[in-house]
Every structure is written in C-alpha cells, then in structure tokens.
C-alpha cells in the first residue's frame, strides 16, 4: 500500500485574515504567515533569527472555516502544495509563490484549545440508532434462560 503524502507547513499567522471571492464565486482565505528561523551554533545552542514571511491561501469550505477560526498570532499546521506563478510589477515579470492549504488547523504543540465534538457525537448517535433499527429483534448472544434465548432453542 502506498502512503500518500503532501507538503506541510507550520508557522504563525502574521496578518489579519482576508476573505475574498474568486471569479468562479469560491471563497478565498488569504494571510501572510511567518516561519521562525534558527541557526545552530558550534556549541550546540541555537540563535533565533528574524522569521521568514510567505503567502498562504485556502479555498471554498476550508477558506470559510479558516476565516472563523484563525486570528493574527495563531500557530498553525497546514497540508497542501506550493503554487508558483508570475505577476507583472512595474513592467517587470516577478516570480511569486504561495502555499495552498487544503487542510489547516491550530498547532496543538503550541496552542491550548478545547475540542467541540458535538457534530461528531450527533453523527455517532444517529449511526448507532440506524444500525439498531436494522438489527433483528432477537439476538443470538442473549444470555441462556432469557426470553430471547428461548426463541433460538
């Protein structure tokens, strides 16, 4: 079996999130993100360097969720791919790149948060109820001597 992987990116949200709409009417989430940089010294210690900044975007449902959940300063982890493109600025063609996040969430190693499992719990209850409705009324695993076990004798 092949393990499918994608690029990942972690860092912090460096700008206020912006929501726009594409020409096709899809939601687009845009932020500048920062990635801390460190240099390892000969003695084994690390020196903190200025962060590097990049563009991050997300589209459609991921964009809508990101707009409600992320704020400037939040630590994140994202999965997706790098999109390289060119733009014209002052008559010059400039190479640019942005990270397109297909999935994005808070970095649990650096963020305290509570998880709301309400939707998942409701889906589990609904699935269990549907499964119970599809089961036969009598169960072959009923204890000996019970009314249902007498039906199976």
UniProtKB/TrEMBL annotation:
Record keyword NAD present: no
Keyword Transferase: no
PROSITE patterns listed in its UniProt record: SSB (PS50935)
Full protein name: Single-stranded DNA-binding protein
Stretches the record annotates as Disordered: 124-153
Protein source organism: Agromyces agglutinans
Keywords associated with the record: DNA-binding
CDD domains: SSB_OBF (cd04496)
Domain of life: Bacteria
UniProt-listed InterPro entries: NA-bd_OB-fold, Primosome_PriB/ssb
GO MF terms held by the record: single-stranded DNA binding
């Amino acid at each position: 079996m092949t393990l499918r992987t994608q690029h990942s990116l972690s860092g912090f949200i460096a700008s206020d999130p912006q929501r726009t709409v594409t020409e096709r009417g899809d939601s687009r989430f845009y932020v500048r993100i920062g990635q801390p940089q460190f240099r390892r010294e000969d003695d084994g210690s690390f020196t903190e360097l200025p962060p590097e900044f990049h563009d991050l975007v997300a589209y459609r449902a991921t964009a809508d969720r990101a707009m409600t959940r992320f704020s400037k300063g939040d630590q994140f982890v994202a999965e997706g791919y790098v999109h390289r493109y060119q733009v014209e600025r002052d008559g010059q063609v400039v190479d640019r790149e942005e990270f397109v996040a297909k999935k994005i969430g808070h970095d649990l190693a650096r963020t305290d948060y509570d998880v709301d499992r309400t939707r998942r719990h409701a889906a589990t209850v609904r699935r269990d109820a549907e499964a119970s409705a599809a089961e036969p009324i009598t169960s072959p695993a009923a204890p000996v001597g019970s009314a249902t076990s007498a039906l199976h004798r």
